[in-house]
Design goal:
The complex is a heterodimer of chains A (511) and B (306). Chain A is α/β, with parallel strands linked by helices and 511 residues long. Chain A has helices at residues 44-51, 74-80, 97-104, 111-124, 140-152, 170-185, 197-203, 226-234, 294-302, 325-330, 351-359, 374-387, 404-416, 434-449, 461-467, 490-497, 503-510, and strands spanning 6-15, 18-28, 33-37, 59-64, 67-69, 82-85, 158-162, 189-193, 206-211, 214-219, 252-261, 271-279, 283-287, 310-315, 318-319, 333-336, 367-368, 371-372, 422-426, 453-457, 470-475, 478-479, 483-484. Helix content of chain A is 34%, strand content 24%. In chain A, the strands form five sheets. In chain A, strands 13, 16, 19, 20, 21, 22 and 23 form a seven-stranded mixed sheet that branches. A six-stranded mixed sheet of chain A has the order 6-7-8-3-9-10, with helices on both faces. A four-stranded antiparallel sheet of chain A has the order 2-1-4-5, covered by helices on one side. Chain B is built from 14 helices and no strands. Classes of the chains: A alpha/beta (511), B mainly alpha (306).
């Protein structure tokens, strides 16, 4: 009889020529919280997908309680006792909480009885949920609870969690850790994937580190430092972003004055009375949990939505509320949206054509008498790729062929190459590995140091603390006053994320 | 027979084929598939139903043949869009063109022949009740089927597990796949159901509405059925309302022509289509209503990553 619950032994998974997992061995004990670490593309997702039956290994075997098993599909994994909480939730927005849970349970269950069980279990683990709420109306944290409760109802012996805290406020994350420790104490094994090394140190008893599909280390994270863990993942020391010099600020380049914007569809959030000023030479960050009006704020500032915008938006001294994105770019502004593939870049266009799309109106010579200067566009694409270390297979590949981190470096580099007076960027390093994130953050700091104004919308507090001079928090479409980074800690920001500054909240508290 | 009774009876006949085709397409679209080939499946159902009934002398066999023909057409669509992952819009349009051409070929030697009529129910006593008798109890089996289908689809979609799975697949096929549901199998099933319903609608046209075969006899009803699904915001009960609303407008147009109102008949007969466009415009204005019920994956091709 084996001591191990699940063992992945000498697992190899190839996609064509490419080995996503190469001779990977990972052993999990009951009641253990085990971290799986690695950069993007290191093969973490591939490995857990095989454990969850969503992929089949090309070679090697999985053992469950010492016996070889073949996990044919996710249903078989669930029957075995493996639950999984995905990074990108596998939820159905148009369905209710109870319906979402029912879909993961093997048999058609009585919906009324199920609703009662959801309420009981969710409250029992400190993750309260309303069974009849529509998922589309819930916050990201609440959505994750559904995923977790859905797993808990199947009484799993192994819970796989893929970057669970990436979308949570610090307080929500703390609550999650309490739940996970309790589950582990009840004997459930937890495989925990995260980029947040401090979190792994605090929570996990073991860690397996993958690099380019191979296991490079199995360590006890409690005896490591965040830097030593990062070194295992990347293979070299990760450069810290250089600290900023305090410098005199220029005049305000972006001014938002009582800006409002109706919600974009039933699942959006309306902006209410947002005021903010960003001066040349500084980086202002907007923190907040996803879905609290960040995309609406970006749309209002960039001019992607003009209809319904209230209040005034001033860029470089010009009133812009009625000006479109092209006119704003002409004033020296540059915008990088959250979604790089499909919004920031056209997937099927080569990089040179993607250069044209944001720069056709602002670069001399990019378009002459209606004709596109492809040579110049190619030069710019090459320059951006060189300056930002965008690794490409050949000289001018399609945007979709780039990895997330490389494409993000290109999309941001394309704007920085113009030396904009104002850069507005939403989620600059979302889903980007540590090396690329460091390059991007350094570039943002350098831009601000050269006298431009930078507005960063981000959900990553580590990033915000690393680069921002001032921080404001957005929640339910309302923006808090901004404060210097030094005056804030994670806890204060967490409270603001939960809505402490909202006028609605204070009225409720007062009544 | 009073005038009102006659009007209501003609409205029922005008609405039934729309209702049958639309309720099938609703299920297809709920699963995230957009089949623009309703017109083609319907017209092939009509010709096959007519030919089978004419040859065997049995209206029941005609209905059966129409259903099978509609399903065969939809199976082709399913094979193209699901197995071969082709573009749904292009495949649906091709299916309509194919159906129109194919039905002309099959029906060439049957054009204008006297067909077999699907007999209405004739329940003694009940049918004899003035006014309500013929309207409620004197219809043929396809009219009752159309109503039964609305309630059955409504019940299945909102109350049963299979309906939940269909909605889930239409809302987010990646999640459904991740949970271990066979997205393609669910969609094949829905596509076949849609084909069967379109076939029934065709059978109603060639066996009951006008019991004969005329080329292109669907005359755009398949397209109206497609519009009705949007009109109903993918809710089964509203398809019933929509189908009868359009049926009524249609018949009113005909009566207006008969009364000799000074509007050209071409304008009057374009009325149902104009109303369709108008209602779609009005509905699209209310983005909240449509966005909540619209199957998020509609028209998107799903290829499992294996």
């Amino acid at each position: 009889m084996s001591d191990f619950l699940l063992e992945a032994v000498h697992i190899t998974k190839t996609f064509g020529e490419f080995a996503a997992n190469d001779d990977v061995t990972l052993r999990l004990k009951p009641g253990e919280i085990h971290a799986l670490l690695g950069e993007n593309g290191a093969g973490k997702s591939t490995l857990v997908k095989m454990m969850y039956g969503a992929l089949q290994p090309s070679d090697g075997e999985l053992r469950w309680r010492g016996k070889p098993v073949r996990i044919a599909n996710p249903a078989a994994a669930r029957a075995l006792g493996v639950g999984m909480v995905f990074q990108h939730f596998s939820l159905f927005e148009a369905l209710t909480v109870a319906e979402n849970v029912a879909l993961a349970l093997p048999d058609a269950t009585d919906m009324a009885a199920l609703a009662t069980r959801i309420e009981q279990v969710s409250r029992g683990y400190g993750l309260p949920l309303q069974p009849h709420a529509l998922v589309a109306d819930l916050s990201v944290g609440q959505r994750q609870r559904i995923e977790i409760v859905r797993c808990l109802l199947q009484e799993p012996s192994l819970l796989i969690m893929d970057e669970p805290t990436a979308v949570l406020t610090p307080q929500e994350a703390d609550q999650l850790f309490v739940t996970l420790r309790r589950l582990a104490a009840e004997g459930c094994a937890i495989l925990y994937i995260s980029h947040r090394l401090e979190e792994v140190k605090a929570l996990c008893q073991a860690a397996t580190v993958l690099r380019r599909g191979k296991v490079v280390a199995v360590v006890d994270p409690r005896r490591e430092t965040a830097a030593s863990l990062a070194r295992h993942m990347v293979g070299v020391d990760v450069a810290d972003v250089s600290t900023r010099m305090v410098q005199a600020l220029g005049e305000a380049i972006l001014t938002l004055d009582h800006v409002s914007l109706p919600a974009d569809g039933p699942f959006g959030t309306a902006l209410r009375d947002v005021s903010l000023e960003v001066a040349g030479g500084e980086i202002v960050a907007i923190a907040g949990v996803a879905g609290n009006g960040q995309s609406e704020l970006f749309d209002a500032v960039s001019g992607e939505r003009l209809e319904g915008v209230g209040g005034s938006i001033t860029i470089a001294g010009h009133g812009c509320a009625a000006r479109g994105i092209k006119a704003r770019r002409a004033l020296g502004a540059a915008f990088v949206p959250e979604e790089r593939l499909g919004h920031g870049a056209v997937p099927d266009f080569p990089l040179s054509h993607n250069v044209i799309l944001t720069r056709f109106a602002v670069d001399d010579g990019m378009v002459q008498r209606g004709l596109v200067n492809l040579g110049l566009a190619g030069d710019v694409a090459g320059r951006v790729a060189g300056a930002f270390d965008v690794r490409t297979a050949h000289s001018d590949p399609e945007a979709r062929s780039l990895s997330g981190g490389n494409l993000q470096k290109f999309v941001i580099g394309r704007e920085l190459d113009r030396r904009p007076r104002l850069l507005v960027v939403n989620q600059p390093t979302w889903g980007v590995d540590a090396g690329a994130a460091a390059v991007i953050r350094q570039a943002l700091i350098d831009l601000a140091r050269s006298g431009s104004a930078v507005l960063v919308i981000s959900q990553d507090l580590d990033e915000i603390f690393a680069i921002a001079d001032r921080i404001a928090v957005i929640s339910r479409g309302e923006l808090s006053d901004s404060r210097p980074t030094g005056d804030l800690d994670r806890e204060a920001i967490g409270l603001l994320m939960a809505g402490a500054h909202e006028r609605g909240a204070s009225e409720r508290a007062a009544s | 027979m009073t005038g009102l009774e006659a009007v209501i009876l003609t409205i029922i006949t005008a609405s039934t084929p729309l209702l049958l085709a639309a309720i099938g397409e609703l299920v297809v679209e709920r699963s995230g598939v957009l089949n623009l080939g309703v017109e083609g499946m319907m017209v092939v159902g009509a010709v096959c139903g007519f030919v089978a009934a004419y040859t065997t002398g049995s209206a029941a066999l005609g209905v059966l043949a129409a259903v099978l023909a509609g399903m065969a057409m939809s199976l082709l669509f399913g094979f193209l869009t699901q197995t071969l992952a082709t573009n749904q819009v292009a495949s649906g349009l091709a299916l309509t063109l194919l159906g129109l051409g194919l039905s002309g070929l099959i029906g060439e030697s049957f054009t204008g022949l006297p067909g077999v009529t699907l007999q209405p129910f004739d329940i003694p006593v009940l049918t004899d009740i003035p006014f309500f008798g013929p309207i409620l109890f004197g219809q043929d089996v396809l009219v009752y089927t159309s109503f039964l289908l609305v309630f059955a689809v409504s019940y299945v979609m909102t109350r049963t597990r299979i309906g939940l799975v269909i909605r889930a697949v239409g809302d987010n096929h990646d999640s459904a796949h991740a949970l271990g549901y066979n997205v393609l199998a669910v969609r094949y099933g829905c596509i076949l159901f849609g084909g069967a319903c379109a076939g029934l609608a065709g059978a109603y046209l060639s066996l009951s509405y006008t019991p004969q075969w005329v080329e292109n006899m669907t005359s755009g009803r398949g397209w109206i059925a497609l519009a009705l699904v949007v009109f109903a915001t993918w809710i089964a009960r509203r398809v019933l309302v929509g189908a009868y609303l359009f049926g009524t407008v249609w018949i009113m147009g005909l009566y207006a022509q008969g009364l000799g109102i000074g509007i050209p008949s071409q304008v009057l007969s374009s009325f149902p289509y104009l109303i369709t466009i108008l209602v779609l415009v009005l509905i699209s204005r209310n983005r909240t209503l449509t966005k909540i019920n619209t199957p998020a994956c509609i028209g998107r091709t799903f290829v499992p990553d294996r």
